[in-house]
Amino acid sequence: MDTLVSTQQCKHCEKVFFNRSLWQEHYDWHTAIQLQLGRVARGQSVNEPESRADTIDQINSLVSRLQLQSDDVDRKGRPDSLRGENRIESNLLPTRAQMEQYLQNAIADFPPYESGGIENVVSEPTIKCPDCDFRFYTREQRDEHHLSKYCRGNEIAVYIMTIDSSALGGYRVYKESIPFESKTAHFKCGKCHNFFTTDTERKQHETSHPIEQRKCPHCEKILQSQYELEEHYLWHDDMHLSQHIERRVEGMKQQQGASQAWNNIGADITDPVTASPRHVQNPWNRKGGFPQYDGDVVAISLFSAEDLEMRYAPDGVLKDLSKETAHLRLSSGVSNKVDDSTTQKKRSYRKSLKSLLGGRREDTSRSPSRHSQRTSLGSSPNVSAARDLPKNDVQEHMEWQLFYRYSRPAWVLTHDRSQHVEVHAAEDHRTHESHPSRIPSLSSRLSPEELQSRFESLMGEIADYATHGAVANKAELEGLMSEITSAELMSRAHLEKLYAWFENERKQDSSNNGEIETLSGLPVLGYGSPSRVLARDHARRARLITGQDLSRIACHAIGPPRGSLDVVRMALGRCGEAALAQGRMRDAERTYTEMFRAMRALYGDEQLQFILLAHLASNVYKKNGNMPNAAGMYMQALRCSQGLYGLRSVNNFTMLTNLAVYYEDIGRLDDAAALYRRSARGRINAGEKEDALMNIQELSAVYRKMGKDQDALRFIQEAYTGYTQVVGPDHRMTLLTLNNLAAFLFAAGSTERAQSLLGPALPAMTRVLGLDDPVTWGSVCNFVMYYAGSSFPPAITRVIEQYMAQNTPASLKVLNGIGDHYGKNNLTRKAMETYRALHGKSMSLLGPSHPETWSSLYAYAYTLDRLGETGEALKQYRLLVSQPQARSLLPRSQGDGAQAAVQDLSRKQAALDKEKAEWGLTTAHKCSLQACSNSTLRFCSDCSLVRFCSPACQREDRSHHGACIPSVTLTESAFTIVQSPLDKSSVVKEAEFLFTQLQLPRRPSCESARDVFINPNNFTTIRISKRPSHILSFQANPGLDLRFMIHRSTPFEWLTPKTSNMLCMLGDVEDSFIVVAPGQSMMKGQVAARDKVFGTESGNVDIPDQNLVEFAQTAAPGDGEFVLGFMVTEWAV
């Protein structure tokens, strides 16, 4: 009785066996079926190959019928089928027209955010690609993706056999999935031999086939046609070979004493079909004509792993490859004649003409290679004669040889049994020029800068060489770079080692040039015709590819003939990092651009290409202020990201946001809004809610610039609500958005609503974020800027006091905002005091070399001027004008304003000085305090009407307190207009009246006559004096509500135009003034206007105080017109 062991499953029909003898019987049964079907038995020996000399001679005989596909190569040598392959052009920066087209494509590809906030359910893309996980919004998007290399369904399966001495059979087979996109790769019908340019046409055609059910004798599977059954038999061929090899490997293990169970061979580490090995040596640089060492590529197949084993290891052991003619060398005869492109084109033209005239096709041989054990579809006895395939079918199993020529870079595809040779121009024509071996002499005294410069120059040469040349000793270079990195500082010894390595590489390359044409080719197994290869993509569709496509697929699978991307990245990456660190943006741009092109030329990972595009945009162009180029890189990165990751990737929305910022900066607001809306919606779908809310907030700012205030308000409110829900009311982004919302409401005139939102949040901002956070002090500045009134709410006052107590940059911002608030609300003295404090803090914190220091001094001088403090304002303006540093740091408007103010105030000060001198105020007189005998030039600091030698005397003279009336002169006044009288006769009449009434010895002569017009809305108090020995007459307009008097130190009495029409001051009166003030009703209007601004309740005020005079001096004139208030005439006797 047989012993039961672990289970074994049949690969043909998936039956499970627990008995070894039963398994053997079942295996023999499948073998018998294979023989009945006419399939080649897997255990028989393989025909011995022909001699290499015979094969080379046969290829040489084909040169006379060489077919150069010149119609598939443009003037630059780039195949038409590859022009649309890459989404990124060779020139990284798109042209203006391309940029516009890409922008419109981006707007069309992504749907916009409409409204409703982040909690609103936004529809996802629902149209799924049938071959991968990507989803799309439109069928057009899906169809474009479905035929691109970014669709997983278009990946071509390539099986690669390499030598591996650690495996029992001496080989290893692994699978690579190669992204593929080509206009010439047609789709084959799965039920007949027809091909179609699109997959849709193929599917439509397949529905036209009648159903002819066929049953597989191996697995009893029902197929829909005999054609499909024949293709199904190929799979059974592979399964039968796989089981045969497993049996052989089991026997070898038993001979070596292996103890593993017979059914677990597939789990052994020596299983010949495994994942990709660590090291693969492609055949392009291999000498000797056949693979010999571990990692050498034996062949590739576009059909299956068993296809390679059937050819090179039919019994589970790798054959003697030295006897294989498939690894023949491309002879010099073929090589030389291939170079004669003129002859090739003439023969191609003759062939085309012959075909047009109905001549016989030269490529008629369809017999499979004698080396192949594969049966051609249609050769089985079970296929009826009526189903014979026509001559243009590609279902024959064949072997091709792919060579790369170095002297004039080109791919050569041969198929010796069908007398077919093709030549395709390589995508990269450049080759590295060999230079004589020479290590430059290095001075023993090289500065670190010179060493770094030499190092970067050498790295550039190495990168250029590694892009177009063969690097033999990459490991040594990696060791040298690691040594330099660990040392941190470049040394002369390091540089010498690098030069030595590079020269050694170039020597080897130069010595190889003489043997370059004798290198071996790559065998390619599969189905097809001599000029076309049938490949299977990831979706199991049959694709018909050209020789040019095959060369590109081979380079993706096992590496290009020349170049080392790892060395390029190692060299240029180090140079790029150094250039960025030192701020050499042009060098960084050039270095990273060359790295990107090397990635393209050497089939680098497209994900790394996307990262490099984003790096170029953000860290090179954007940091250097080159926003147009940065936008171009962002656009290229967007297109790359769409292909690699699909429409739902967050990388897309990062690129869209960066592009939106660019278009906003250049004023294309419609495009910026469209991009922000698409980025916001995409980020909501991707779960990136905080970033989506930022996009919505930026969208609001764009709509505000466009004048669409309703949309702007709606979006900023949605952003604030969203932040409150997502991160909480006390989060920094929530408070920032609240400040932006309040600023919008302030600007829109909704002051009360803005204050109600922002005011209660300010104490929370200071508590959560601190006083120095820009959100906090920015919010405080916004609040005080738009707040109406002189006194702030208690909570805001406490926040302001905290800033006033600090000496930080944040406190300077707040002080400046408070000063602006006071100035805008006509609180000029408070504004002056605030700007004075601001200037002092700026000088101590920022120093005299900072622009804000001088701007604060300008504001201080300006408020002094508005207060009428001409002397002090002139002093500060002169300081600004006299300092060259201030003139260079101030804005031009402030510098010009200071210069003009100096001129105007100088004239005004001269007029004031002249006025004082004419009035006799420059002569010292006795102090008004009776107990004081001092003489003084000083006047009362409040009213400037009475002399006091000191503030103490001013305080002690209590009789003056009731008569201390603050006032300004006509020269200082901002609410009067002085003109010469138009009616000269009235002056003559007044002279006659004075001569008669005052009994003067002679008629007085008029020295000056002035008509004074006043604005009733802001008129307060004027003081008027005269020159000694002159007579001053004053006459008020009887229709105005005015009060006036002659001020003396004795008790005074107010007069009105109704009680007294004229006042006269004679020549013997000293230090006396005529004081003019508003009447009772006019006074009430002025007090009410001031109380409204200051937020006070003054009640009944009889005499204007200092605050009211300053308010009148700085307040806007209002809507009232100037009217004649009084006339002042000065007479000489």
UniProtKB/TrEMBL annotation:
This is C2H2-type domain-containing protein. Residues 425-436 have a biased composition (Basic and acidic residues). PROSITE patterns: ZF_MYND_1, ZINC_FINGER_C2H2_1, ZINC_FINGER_C2H2_2. One of its GO terms (molecular function) is zinc ion binding. Residues 344-353 have a biased composition (Basic residues). Keywords: Metal-binding, Repeat, TPR repeat, Zinc, Zinc-finger. Residues 187-214 form the C2H2-type domain. Residues 437-446 have a biased composition (Low complexity). SMART domains: ZnF_C2H2 (SM00355). Residues 374-383 have a biased composition (Polar residues). Residues 331-390, 425-446 are annotated as: Disordered.
